[in-house]
Amino acid sequence: MKFLAARRSMATAIGSLVLAASATGQSQTLVLYDPVGMYDSCATVFQPTSVATSISASPITQVGLGCWFNTNVWPLGQIGTSVVLDPNQYTTFDVVPNSTTVQYETLSYSKRSYVGEGPRQAAVRTSLDGFASDVALVTGLDPMGFEQILFDISSLPSSSGSITFRIYFFDAPGMGADWADLGSSAVGDTGLILTGNAGAGPIGSPYCGPAIPNSTAQPGLIEATGSVLVANNLVTLTASQLPPGQFGYFLVGQTQGFFNPPGSQGLICLTGNIGRYNSVANIIQGPTGSISIDLTAIPVNPPTAAMPGETWNFQCWYRDLNPTLTNNFTDGLTITFQ
Q1: Mean per-residue pLDDT, 173-194
Q2: Are residues 174 and 216 in the same domain?
Q3: Enclosing domain of residue 209
Q4: Which of 136, 170, 253, 316 could disulfide-link to 274, CB 3.0 to 4.6 Å?
Q5: How far apart are CA 164 and CA 266, in angstroms?
Q6: Phi, psi (deg, nearest 5) at residue 22
């Protein structure tokens, strides 16, 4: 049995200097592994502590490392001395989206090393490329310290399929007689946390298209990404193929229409109670613009929340010079929420 050292380092190692923000700004915790209690790294089944409703996750296991016992940490070691990653030593877990698309953001790991021979480097690889290359690499770890390691994995493509994550620790000084234990909340750490946007793929179906071409000789297009689950409140609208430099805003309503408003070169595909996302923060500019919308406050009259089973329709209105001042519309997009 090994015992905990009293020293704690407040350093944070970041795989990339700048973490990419999510496209919608609504990143969430997808999986948490918090090893509170007694753990045998070879015998204990380390199940996830919490998992987002939109995904499933496997227990954590480790390969090519020794069998160790400890309390309130997941024992991981001992760490090899090679400055080159050993592809046969890692800790691993699987993530499976449940009928949704996931954009992964970060993976954080509360590392505990004790006798000055812990890892100085760590890397994350995935099954997407057969574990051939690093998604994120962290260098300069304290071989003696307790550290919060933050891997930026936002370069991974959005995925609706199963992904296996592997975390490699290596480059230990001396004999490598130390560990990279995963600390739990019981010892003031945060365990392992995987974050991202669940349901970040395309949603909705186009209608009322193609739109009337604008001054670019192309029709304006509308699309949406996010989740059809109302509870996720995760929808981003994007309009593209708009005239460069011209402003516009999105429209919303529950009733589809099809007519040419006076003074417009396009067709509006909504009728009835139409809402407008025309606040200053929501004004877009061509050729492409996006906004994230709040499903709890759709701006019809009066403002209302989208409910499971409801269908809402969206379109973008925009200015144009074709050749004189006018306006136009994209095609329409219909989304049925769950």
Answers
A1: 96
A2: no
A3: 201-336
A4: 253
A5: 48
A6: -70, 155
Collapse the DSSP code of 293 into the 3-class scheme (helix H, G, I; strand E, B; otherwise coil) and give the result: strand
Only one residue has tokens 């975390």, namely: 167
pLDDT over 70 for what percent of the chain?
Answer: 91
Q: Are 268 and 259 in contact (CB under 8 A)?
A: yes
Count of structural domains within the chain: 2
pLDDT digits (tens, 9 = 90+) for 250-296: 999 999 999 999 999 999 999 999 999 999 999 999 999 999 999 99
The CATH code of the domain that includes 143 is 2.60.120
CA 261 and chain centroid, separation: 40
Same domain membership, residue 205 and residue 183: no
CA distance 68 to 40: 6
Closest of 190, 170, 181 to residue 31, by C-alpha: 190
Task: Please check whether residues 241 and 327 belong to one and the same domain.
Answer: yes
Closest CA to 137 of 126, 118, 121, 117: 121
- 3-state SS, 98-131, equals CCCCEEEEEEEEEEECCCCCCCCEEEEEEHHHCC
Q: In CATH, what number is assigned to the domain containing residue 285?
A: 2.60.40
